[in-house]
Amino acid sequence: MAQNDRKRKHAQYEGDYDQPSSMSLAATLASLKHPDPWTNDSKSIPERDNGGRGSDENGWTKVSRNRRRPPNKRRKRRHDDNEAGRVESQTQTQKHDTPKGNYPAVTYAALHTIQASTKISDLQSLLLYCLADGQAPQWLSVRHHGQIRKAVVLFVPGLEAGMFDGQIALPDPISDAASAEGASEADAIPNGIANAQNESQLSSQQVRNEVLRPPTAGMSPDDFLPLRLSVDKLPASLHPLAEIFEHLWRVKAPGDDKYSKVFSPLHAMLTSSFPKSRDEREAAKSMKGAKPFAGSKHWENVLTPITTFVSSKDDLLGNEYVLHPAVLTTEAERENYIAQRQGANQVAEDGWVDTKIDKLEDAEINDYPKGSLTAGRSVLAIDCEMCLVKGGEFALTRISIVDWDGTVVMDELVKPFKAIIDYLTPYSGISPAALAPITTTLPDIQTRLLSLLTPSTILLGHSLNSDLQALKLTHPFIIDTSLLYPHPRGPPLKSSLKWLSQKYLSREIQRGHGATGHDSIEDARACLDLVRLKCEKGPKWGSMDAERESIFKRLLRADGPDGSKGIGKKGAIVDHGAPEKQFAQMGAAYTIGCSSDAEVVQGVRRAVLGDEDGSIVPGGGVDFTWARFRELETLRGWNRGPSASAATSSDQPDARTLSAAVAATAAHIKTVFELLPPCTLLVVYSGTGDPRPLARLREVQRVFREEYKVKKWDELSVKWTDDEEQELRRECARARKGVGFVVVK
């Protein structure tokens, strides 16, 4: 590039992408050489003077560096509504006037660089920055955030980015009978476009805009940048939103692309991580391994008996445990399961034993000291080490058991029947010399265990199914620490015992991993202490809920506008149904139940402004209101349960019905905006994209996994191949794409 040439800026690119474009390099070059004949605006390709950005004799546009202006001349830039960020002429009225003085505002500069996707947590951070102790957002600018007095967040599932860029047709809602007569034929045409007989009633330009618009029309060259809203370019149903908000933000829902999961957008907005001091944040950066449990400073202990944590039958089945007969409640169920065990070589003839328990009721103990964590039960923590034997099987080589007090009950080396091909010394710590004098065999250990494990005994362990497989033993009362402390990213992932010990016990174990091997007694005691800690702290200890708190509780600790301590800010929840039950633990000062979106609007009015008589919500209302509109979500079928055989396309309402519902929802949002007092932050977010294709595929995957365990490939009702796996990943990425809007009134 020559020295006088200048690169185009984001502001200029944003203007270009307000026009329909294929977003490809070839199309961009072609549009520069041959302007789009379908362009609706004669100014869509601005004229350039030869001194700055001229056109050569071949019709190509040349981009060059602006020359220095003569000191005695003043060049006025011509306003172009397609080039975002340019200075408008003083005679042109702006859509959003720039606030004066210290009036608060949220603004986005066209030249602002965004390095990552905007997430729901970013919307929450903006809220906490304006009302509490949150950090300043990096994705937009907030002027005089201390002057923002209230905040309202509207959760509107059902809104999608495709409604704004033309991928989802939203024809103008029919308002009279004459229009209704011609609607039946138009509804049968894709995207709600009229057929050839009605095209004569439309301008050729309107038809071209609807039919020829590519799927990526209106998209920014940078996927992280927001899209500028314009009434002229949106369906009539969305005009109220364009009149309120300047930009549409593409907001990414929380999830896990690797395992094709989308997490709750409601939970992501209404709960936040515990705030950390600057010293804590710096210490966490330099810390290796698992970080200390963040919820410990704010936790209230709830003493819980150990019987609360015994795994259910479904948990055991879902984690590849061989079930004890006592877990099966009916005789028919037992017979069917025994047949399955016979097919898997897991019965007595194959060396398996079941502990001597006829029914689960035999374990009940009613007479024990009040407040006892063990509830009168015997508790044993077990850990085994294995080696690899001939045939590719794992065989028991060591077993260690400790009781509730940490006393060693059993620690034995075991000699496998089959020849050992790999001692796995770096992990098991077992060597040929250690096993050479050993004569104890697996049946010897099983005999001792059958006398040790009574109906009142609870077995603890980490991924205990592997240990019981090596022992060829079943027991009905199991507590597995890999299930007790769920992985931060959810199942099927499981945290290692080493990681759990470091995070929750501040203890380093398995230091000999990869060298001298593990110490099974040390591992068994770590499992025991993790379970004991859970009993002392409560069921939610160690879960993601324990590391997060309700946003309403956090706002209650917020300082006053003048910096005064302990003032706090009250919140309200407005939702369909009975939010006082669903959100009972959130700590909102008020919950308002509704039966329609129109009632939600009135509920928001009560929460923000207060009841006229002050009967429930005092005058002046609350500082923070969260509300949800559900009618659009219900119409689109987003709140229905997944089905492996359900087709998603037939569930869609027709274009005009959808457009009418979107128009009603947008009107409700506008009504909420109009009732807000000045200096109020309004945030609207959809949460996700369409979740139904993802839910359907996950249901297919679930059915496949269940059938694959017990059926042959040709007998499966559904198939799961790499094609379905790739489709699942694509649908997960689509489902995580939501939208959001932000404005200060």
UniProtKB/TrEMBL annotation:
GO cellular component: nucleus
Superkingdom as given in the UniProt entry: Eukaryota
UniProt entry keywords in alphabetical sequence: Exonuclease, Hydrolase, Nuclease, Nucleus
Biased composition (Basic residues): 1-10, 64-78
Bias type Basic and acidic residues, positions: 44-56
Subcellular location: Nucleus
Residue intervals of the Exonuclease domain: 378-540
Positions of region (Disordered): 1-102
Protein name: Exonuclease domain-containing protein
Organism: Heterodermia speciosa
